[in-house]
């Protein structure tokens, strides 16, 4: 058998027809196309995430060896501490992260809509220049963008130094120091392009004759916006919001530098526990809250848009 | 105790060579074999430690003296050194140099039934006898188990707070300056910084609250009630803070820019500013007690070059290298002979600091119930 | 107010917001670029003059430049893996019906959606605790190859959906065999999308900090070096290397925009 099969194999290597015939089998070509990525995703995505879920339900001993006995200790540790529940670090941090992510999303939406609308209606040279100016920060490293705001804010940062220099204020303004405001500005700057591009994609496909028809039929501008433009661009709004909200929720670099240690978002809390203590049980359990809330966000989004609408997927 | 960033071309040339190898796709083989920069007969000693230890003068002198190649990875916290070794990196490194309080923790950590770190090769560490008696004593009392010594002190310093004497009037040194708004005759609100570290910041608050006796045993023992009190004190202090600062260079830069005028700091930061001709910062040693540290070297039990590793450590406390290290990090060496290598001015600042001053201080020690500390600290940070 | 005035006010409002936005996007970057040439590199005032010294110091820093080459190597290897896997998977998704197809697609998009902190930690404990692999160069490559996959997948599938399959049929009717059809018809149509996918995966890997931070072991990549520079307040070099990167990206982007419709590719792949 060995001889004959190696002969066939050599034939296949040599004969073009054989190769074509071999590939022509639907099952084989499906295996060849879908298979490699499947193996990769199972080994390097599904397996690590599943392992993380299981780690959140077991104890890790002093030598960081896993003790395979089911326990809820990691989840209890998230809510450890005295005082009312809402004062526990994890809860406060989670609530704060949701709030910051929500404000950032709304800011991005409000700011991006006019620009996206203009871009969708304009073409030519202006369009190219503007899109270049928007895309360039988008392609620039996230770390660089966060850092550029690190220079702007702070008691002696560029904003305060400029205000002082021109005598507009006598003391550095607290609102331009590091803190929640700085974090929201930094996150808005970082994720704004996602919102813009999502909105642009859906506004670009918008049939403007509908807008004109609505106006012709006597609808006011607000009515047209509410009844025609918004419903038609809803997929863009939802996908843009998701792609701003989710990374803002788990942000680490921006709050790390723009919070000056006074603000603790959930990404920092988890990272600190792992980075300095290698508390993998705690970190995994805390991560589950983020993962679950993201799953819920997407599930809600899919009630209104199909997966195909998400940024042209 | 990380000092100013100093570059180390030696490490870096290794990195770029590694990058080049990686770029050509060969890194996989070398990395898998674990012998980057090795080859030939010169063993490579991997060290996980603070930035200043990578000083190029020290590094090249040690490499020549001991006949090894040093590969130094910088770290910014002892807890990180400990947890990464414990999580398996003890197999990647030969030497780590954490703060003294982490040496007993490493001694207690077992890997495959053996302690994670190896006993001192006394013959290789010939400079041990030159060390101040007080550090020899610490090594005996803190780092010795079953007749074996496990750590070698290298350099030392202490924490208190420092301030801009141009805007903060003189006062009796006390943590009240950081926590009590009425203690110092100046408006400090929004102009205070604290360490972004649970042990340092919470210890300062505990000492302010008069819990000094919690620091007396072999471990720091705060009760849950005391921890809650500390937590509340720090939360109350938070609106007056400019921020929490994690790295010494940021402290120096920010103090120079006038972002804050008073803050918890190590002595080495202020000494560094003095030696750069800034005479206005003042260092305070609070009457409630200062936290003193000494960094101590350990060798991994998985090291294949234990004797060479101890020889490397011995070089770090030689008169000459110890003096360079003191100069680089603005912190004194445990070896008094380093004074001969330094000028009078240098000696005054960081060469000839009498370690008997440490006797009135509280040495860094492990914390009882660290989880409760960390939970409380996170609540402070998220409040 | 009459109709004209309202119309004009609205237009003014639209253009005003849009203009303000561009200012918002650009001011911090421009300030950073100016500071990279300033003697006093951390803030604009007091202004102490201009210098090129920071650039000299930056490019003489062999550690930083070495880390940059490491990042480039990681980005190249991982984007290549992501592109090969992503193109094959896109073909499966666009051409075949198979069980659990939507699950497969979701799995392929997931790496883009999971926050970096969580993905990084999951990979770290998987490699270190479960598999006992010592983290280093190759764990970053593996992690980034998964992270880059969705970007290739999204761009290439959307191109395939708009691909006119009758072209392939025509080629076959004219006597081309499947291999010739792929090489002469399918691939040329897909090539720009594949190129864009590769580029995206490459950039995502190159700019990633948090995933690399967890799985890099003792390897230094550009972002982790930059992170410590910010942490230690090494502003001069940070300004210079950042400005350099903005400049390189600007040149590449200008070239790419003249060559193809970058905006529509980007619109296909938003998300972190």
TrEMBL record, chain A:
<feature type="transmembrane region" description="Helical">
    <location>
        <begin position="237"/>
        <end position="258"/>
    </location>
</feature>
<comment type="similarity">
    <text>Belongs to the binding-protein-dependent transport system permease family. CysTW subfamily.</text>
</comment>
<dbReference type="GO" id="GO:0055085">
    <property type="term" value="P:transmembrane transport"/>
</dbReference>
<dbReference type="GO" id="GO:0005886">
    <property type="term" value="C:plasma membrane"/>
</dbReference>
<keyword id="KW-0812">Transmembrane</keyword>
<feature type="transmembrane region" description="Helical">
    <location>
        <begin position="95"/>
        <end position="119"/>
    </location>
</feature>
<keyword id="KW-0472">Membrane</keyword>
<keyword id="KW-1003">Cell membrane</keyword>
<feature type="domain" description="ABC transmembrane type-1">
    <location>
        <begin position="94"/>
        <end position="301"/>
    </location>
</feature>
<keyword id="KW-1133">Transmembrane helix</keyword>
<feature type="transmembrane region" description="Helical">
    <location>
        <begin position="150"/>
        <end position="168"/>
    </location>
</feature>
<dbReference type="InterPro" id="IPR000515">
    <property type="entry name" value="MetI-like"/>
</dbReference>
<feature type="transmembrane region" description="Helical">
    <location>
        <begin position="279"/>
        <end position="305"/>
    </location>
</feature>
<feature type="transmembrane region" description="Helical">
    <location>
        <begin position="175"/>
        <end position="194"/>
    </location>
</feature>
<feature type="transmembrane region" description="Helical">
    <location>
        <begin position="126"/>
        <end position="144"/>
    </location>
</feature>
TrEMBL record, chain B:
<dbReference type="InterPro" id="IPR006059">
    <property type="entry name" value="SBP"/>
</dbReference>
<dbReference type="GO" id="GO:0042597">
    <property type="term" value="C:periplasmic space"/>
</dbReference>
<dbReference type="Pfam" id="PF13416">
    <property type="entry name" value="SBP_bac_8"/>
</dbReference>
<keyword id="KW-0813">Transport</keyword>
<dbReference type="GO" id="GO:0015846">
    <property type="term" value="P:polyamine transport"/>
</dbReference>
<dbReference type="InterPro" id="IPR006311">
    <property type="entry name" value="TAT_signal"/>
</dbReference>
<keyword id="KW-0732">Signal</keyword>
<dbReference type="GO" id="GO:0019808">
    <property type="term" value="F:polyamine binding"/>
</dbReference>
<dbReference type="InterPro" id="IPR001188">
    <property type="entry name" value="Sperm_putr-bd"/>
</dbReference>
<protein>
    <submittedName>
        <fullName>Spermidine/putrescine transport system substrate-binding protein</fullName>
    </submittedName>
</protein>
<keyword id="KW-0574">Periplasm</keyword>
TrEMBL record, chain C:
<dbReference type="InterPro" id="IPR035906">
    <property type="entry name" value="MetI-like_sf"/>
</dbReference>
<feature type="transmembrane region" description="Helical">
    <location>
        <begin position="240"/>
        <end position="259"/>
    </location>
</feature>
<feature type="transmembrane region" description="Helical">
    <location>
        <begin position="133"/>
        <end position="156"/>
    </location>
</feature>
<dbReference type="GO" id="GO:0005886">
    <property type="term" value="C:plasma membrane"/>
</dbReference>
<dbReference type="GO" id="GO:0055085">
    <property type="term" value="P:transmembrane transport"/>
</dbReference>
<dbReference type="InterPro" id="IPR051789">
    <property type="entry name" value="Bact_Polyamine_Transport"/>
</dbReference>
<keyword id="KW-0472">Membrane</keyword>
<feature type="transmembrane region" description="Helical">
    <location>
        <begin position="106"/>
        <end position="127"/>
    </location>
</feature>
<keyword id="KW-0812">Transmembrane</keyword>
<feature type="transmembrane region" description="Helical">
    <location>
        <begin position="72"/>
        <end position="94"/>
    </location>
</feature>
<keyword id="KW-1003">Cell membrane</keyword>
<feature type="transmembrane region" description="Helical">
    <location>
        <begin position="12"/>
        <end position="39"/>
    </location>
</feature>
<feature type="domain" description="ABC transmembrane type-1">
    <location>
        <begin position="68"/>
        <end position="256"/>
    </location>
</feature>
<feature type="transmembrane region" description="Helical">
    <location>
        <begin position="182"/>
        <end position="203"/>
    </location>
</feature>
<protein>
    <submittedName>
        <fullName>ABC-type spermidine/putrescine transport system permease subunit II</fullName>
    </submittedName>
</protein>
